[in-house]
TrEMBL record:
Domain of life: Bacteria
Protein name (record): Response regulator transcription factor
Signal peptide: none
PANTHER family listed in its UniProt record: TRANSCRIPTIONAL REGULATORY PROTEIN DCUR-RELATED, TRANSCRIPTIONAL REGULATORY PROTEIN DPIA
One matching Pfam family: Response_reg
Phosphoprotein keyword on record: yes
GO MF terms held by the record: phosphorelay response regulator activity
Keywords: Phosphoprotein
Alphabetized SUPFAM superfamilies for the sequence: CheY-like (SSF52172)
Domain Response regulatory: 2-118
Modified residues (4-aspartylphosphate): 53
Ranges that cross the membrane: none
Organism (species): Undibacterium oligocarboniphilum
């Protein structure tokens, strides 16, 4: 699974890359800290999933989420933010986010979420 990281903190970028490297079959295909390069990077790559911060130095991650889901709705997106208000959660989920995490309390859940996205859906058996 190809993952794109959209995060403006280099410290968090590096931490996420280390987390992802521990998941077999997960590859980081791009890292961006700003909205424009992230959009171009995602649209022009074979991205399957994105870790996306809401507050980016050059723009709004929520708007980026909407634009990506318009052009590539199949991409899975997890929001990872320090601004985990209920209002932000609702807006992100309504815009198409597949999951929503708080950086300060939910960071460790990233691996489980990404790993679950790698699992193929089990075929339905008809008896």
């Amino acid at each position: 699974m190809n993952l794109y990281i959209v995060e403006d903190s280099v410290l968090i970028q590096n931490r996420l890359i280390r987390f992802v490297e521990e998941i077999p079959g997960m590859y980081v295909v791009g890292v961006s800290g700003d909205v424009d390069s992230a959009y171009n990077g995602v649209i022009n790559s074979e991205t399957d999933a994105i870790i996306l911060d809401l507050q980016l130095g050059t723009g709004n991650g929520l708007q980026l989420l909407k634009e990506i889901k318009q052009h590539k709705p199949e991409i899975k997106i997890v929001i990872l933010t320090n601004h985990s208000t209920e209002d932000n959660r609702l807006h992100a989920l309504r815009a198409g986010a597949d999951d929503f995490l708080d950086k300060s309390t939910d960071f460790e859940q990233i691996q489980n979420i990404l790993h679950s996205w790698q699992q193929p859906l089990a075929p339905h058996r008809i008896n």
